[in-house]
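Bumping my old thread because nobody answered last time. Still need a sequence for this structure:
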């Protein structure tokens, strides 16, 4: 079948990559993806469109596919694209000359400015021009020119080509479809073989869904013999400036993708006529997956006449059938590459053996008798029997051949071809070998985080020496048989002592299930190694005791005990067989007591200790000790206090101040005993001096702001003569910030 050139162009767009599958050649994206296309200056990619010319005079540019396409078997096609012609323009000539899309036999070496729309002289192929300049009247216009032939007119301008049957020029569409403007025009070009003349194409062109061309075109000149070409776009400005742009280019063509190109089948001849008979349409599904969507035409190789009755084709010699496959959906190229190779041969069925698994030592297996390839001829029917006598008599046919349960043995099959040839074969049933597997036991030391469990490598169990097997592990026999709830990580399986089941599968896919017993080896600890408490500077001995296979202390020692160890945390690895128990032991420093507070009343102090381990002992010199925490008859001034607990470690000590005692003041202004003054204690932290009356009401408080002094007044008024009580509190400057409180009384004598 001789197809039209423009359809050849479409097939190229879909077959450009060299494949026979459906394709769409596109210029889309942002920026536009030009892979497979040649961009010819001054054309360039500008975001989501191809700018064929800049908004300047004397510009020409183009873009074309960079490989040719052969459209021999295409008879329908469609091209879609958007174009825009905009810019400032030139007063004398308007906006450029226009743009063209084309399919040319040879890629242009140069492009033509002006009215040629970039198409070079004597270019051959299909050319569609969108012309904006009337070269006769030098006026603006919007015309579509179609030429299917050779661009051989003066000035290379297809506007002036009027080859009968090969050209068409629309009326000026400037009033209804102006080509110049800021908006894109959407173009659809479709074509199909003219049934009235298979050498012609019916070309339809729509602009913004309005049909502007719809007629049959005949190839003229050298286009009549054209079988391949290059698809592209071009534009030119001549003496006028304009920007010519295209985008959203989509070229559709389909060549049927075949599942395979060659099918071979042998047939037994009719014993009477010597002819084989075949329904060629039964091979359709071997070429495409959905034959109903395609039209098939069959030819005997070397004969141009289609086979009239392919459903009942007869042949008496080996024959090659050429198959043409056509897509029924509309946009297509035929695929003529299918071949059916038919051969004649007397029919015989072949004895076969099939083997299945008797999994886990079952006495029977399930056989699919239909898998025994006793004949390669398509369309045969097979019947299965337990004995040859049953086959010959046609009795006791096996009714479940796809799931036949049997011990090893032989069954018989009667094979009948579509042509009525009959053959007999026997099918031997056998068991596939099972892997040799035994039960096993795995022992593993406990894990520190969970001493009742161990980390097992199930794959290390010595259950088989067979090679090429796979193992899967399960927590129960039922799961192993069903293949459910498989242990996900058998090389690091954490488990208590238990049993698990391993499914061992050979290369044959047959399996045997065996048991693996898991045993957790528990930790073995020393019963004599215990924590100790010592003074911070003392040393002691740690002893793990006898009975272990090895010792490794954190100190590096490998003996059962270590001596002279100071305060700290230690561990020892105790070996029992291949297992190691890490036992931690602490040598703790005895906690020192803390002098929390000291209460001072006149010449008596009371020491309040906390921490450490009672009972405490107290001292004023660190040598003479007493159990009482009260010291009396103390002198005024700085005094040291020592405290130690039952561990008799280095005592803790503080230094306190017993303030000077003043028991009477006479605030009469004679500068003798006019006030109480404790500025001598100002170096103490948080020092506060507070005065109370005999009812416990606070009358005065002297802190740093009042310089720790009291002149016998309250609220600026003299206090009545009488006895008042006061307290002085401060924080000692030691590491424990010992709280100290001094209580006293004072007689205030005011002149009445």
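Sorry it took so long. Here it is:
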């Amino acid at each position: 079948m001789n197809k039209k050139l423009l359809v050849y162009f479409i097939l190229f767009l879909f077959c450009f990559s060299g494949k026979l599958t459906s394709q769409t050649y596109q210029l889309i994206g942002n920026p536009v993806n030009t892979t497979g296309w040649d961009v010819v200056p001054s054309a360039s990619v500008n975001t989501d469109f191809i700018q064929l010319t800049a908004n300047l005079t004397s510009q020409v540019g183009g873009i074309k596919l960079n490989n040719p396409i052969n459209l021999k078997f295409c008879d329908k096609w469609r091209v879609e694209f958007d174009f825009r012609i905009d810019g400032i323009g030139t007063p004398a000539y308007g906006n450029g000359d226009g743009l063209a899309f084309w399919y040319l036999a040879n890629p242009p070496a140069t492009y033509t400015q002006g009215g040629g729309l970039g198409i070079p002289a004597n270019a051959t192929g299909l050319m569609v021009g969108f012309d904006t300049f009337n070269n006769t009247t030098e006026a603006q216009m919007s015309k579509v020119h179609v030429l299917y032939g050779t661009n051989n007119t003066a000035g290379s301008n297809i506007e002036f080509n009027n080859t009968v049957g090969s050209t068409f020029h629309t009326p000026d569409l400037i009033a209804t479809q102006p080509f110049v403007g800021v908006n894109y025009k959407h173009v659809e070009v479709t074509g199909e073989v003219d049934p009235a003349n298979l050498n012609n194409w019916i070309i339809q062109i729509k602009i913004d869904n309005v049909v502007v061309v719809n007629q049959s075109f005949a190839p003229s000149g050298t286009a009549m013999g054209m079988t391949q070409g290059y698809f592209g776009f071009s534009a030119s400005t001549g003496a006028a400036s304009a920007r010519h742009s295209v985008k959203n280019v989509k070229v559709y063509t389909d060549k049927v993708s075949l599942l395979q190109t060659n099918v071979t089948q042998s047939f037994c001849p009719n014993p009477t006529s010597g002819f084989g008979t075949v329904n060629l349409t039964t091979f359709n599904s071997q070429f495409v997956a959905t034959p109903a969507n395609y039209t098939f035409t069959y030819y005997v190789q070397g004969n141009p006449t289609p086979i009239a009755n392919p459903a009942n084709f007869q042949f008496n010699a080996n024959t090659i059938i050429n198959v043409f496959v056509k897509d029924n959906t509309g946009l297509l190229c035929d695929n003529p590459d299918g071949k059916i190779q038919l051969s004649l041969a007397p029919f015989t069925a072949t004895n076969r053996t099939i083997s299945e698994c008797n999994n886990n030592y079952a006495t029977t297996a399930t056989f699919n008798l239909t898998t025994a390839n006793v004949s390669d001829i398509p369309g045969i029917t097979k019947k299965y029997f337990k004995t040859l006598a049953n086959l010959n008599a046609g009795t006791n046919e096996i009714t479940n051949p796809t799931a036949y349960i049997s011990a090893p043995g032989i069954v018989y099959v009667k094979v009948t071809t579509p042509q009525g040839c009959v053959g007999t074969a026997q099918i031997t049933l056998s068991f596939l070998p099972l892997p040799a597997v035994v039960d096993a036991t795995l022992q593993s030391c406990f894990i520190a985080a969970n001493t009742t469990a161990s980390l097992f490598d199930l794959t290390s169990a010595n259950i088989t020496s067979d090679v090429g097997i796979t193992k899967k592990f399960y927590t129960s026999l039922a799961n192993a048989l069903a293949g459910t709830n498989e242990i996900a990580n058998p090389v690091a399986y954490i488990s208590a002592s238990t049993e698990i089941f391993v499914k061992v599968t050979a290369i044959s896919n047959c399996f045997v299930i065996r048991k693996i017993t898991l045993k957790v080896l528990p930790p073995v600890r020393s019963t004599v190694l215990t924590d100790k408490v010592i003074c911070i500077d003392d040393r002691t001995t740690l002893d793990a005791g006898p009975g272990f296979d090895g010792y490794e202390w954190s100190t590096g020692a490998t003996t059962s005990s270590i001596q002279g160890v100071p305060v700290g945390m230690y561990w020892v690895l105790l070996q029992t067989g291949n297992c190691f128990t890490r036992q931690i032991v602490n040598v703790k420093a005895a906690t020192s007591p803390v002098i929390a507070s000291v209460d001072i009343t006149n010449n008596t102090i009371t020491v309040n200790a906390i921490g450490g381990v009672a009972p405490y002992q107290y001292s004023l010199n660190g040598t003479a000790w007493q159990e009482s925490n009260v010291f009396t008859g103390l002198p005024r001034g700085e005094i040291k206090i020592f405290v130690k607990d039952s561990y008799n470690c280095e005592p803790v000590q503080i230094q306190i101040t017993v303030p000077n005692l003043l028991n009477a003041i006479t605030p009469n202004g004679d500068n003798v005993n006019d006030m109480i003054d404790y500025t001598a204690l100002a170096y103490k932290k948080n020092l506060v001096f507070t005065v109370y009356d005999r009812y416990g009401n606070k009358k005065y408080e002297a802190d740093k702001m009042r310089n720790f002094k009291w002149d016998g007044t309250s609220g600026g008024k003299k206090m009545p003569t009488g006895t008042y009580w006061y307290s002085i509190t401060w924080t000692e400057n030691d590491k424990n910030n010992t709280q100290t409180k001094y209580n006293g009384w004072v007689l205030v004598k005011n002149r009445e």
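Confidence is low (pLDDT under 50) at residues 1-22. Let me know if any region looks off to you.
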